[in-house]
Amino acid sequence: MMSRVFVVLCSAAVLVGAASAADKYSGPRPPKPDLPYLLHADNLAPTEPSIAKEETRKDALAYVIPGATSAARTPLSEPIFLVQVEKLAPQALGIYRMEVRNGNREVIIPQKKVKNPPKPIPLKITKLDDRLYRVEVDQPLENGEYTLSPEGSNDAFSFQIY
User: Fold this and answer.
1) How far is residue 142 from each of residues 75, 78, 79, 104, 120, measured CA to CA in Å?
2) Do 8 and 15 meet the contact criterion of CB atoms below 8 Å apart?
3) What is the pLDDT of residues 129-162, one digit of tens each?
């Protein structure tokens, strides 16, 4: 009787091990850590990294990125990103739609309470591997300029939906 229980337990352990091995991520991997990459089928395109310049304006803060458009582009209205993390916390990422003004991209955050202030667009974060994460936009986005930015940081990873 004991040997049958042992065989059943060993078989169950082998099945669990095989199932977890089958779940291993086998797709493309970002070549640089802490830089989100747009996923296009089996290809990765880096987002445009920069530091958003903070400007104080009347009753608002503006975060400005030089240039009217990002070199990182995607046709997907619900982009998917892969990021290999070292220092970056994927759960802290948010996407903001940028407005193009005076040849720059900017998002304005009001300091006073206003109706419909800019809020980060919801994201779905999935851990694929030890330090590899899949970041997905949770709703369709319109064509335009966007940036991924960690909460509390001026780091920006820009891209354009066309």
Assistant:
1) 10, 9, 11, 19, 15
2) no
3) 999 999 999 899 999 999 999 999 999 999 999 9
CA distances from 108 to 65, 94, 127 (A): 12, 15, 31
- The mean pLDDT of the chain is 87
Q: Are strands 155-161 and 132-137 parallel, antiparallel or unpaired?
A: unpaired
Prediction pTM value: 0.82
Helical H segments across the chain, by residue range: 2-22
Tens of pLDDT, residue by residue over 38-94, are 999 999 999 999 999 999 998 899 999 999 999 999 999 999 999 999 999 999 999
Q: How many C-beta atoms lie closer than 10 Å to residue 83's C-beta?
A: 24
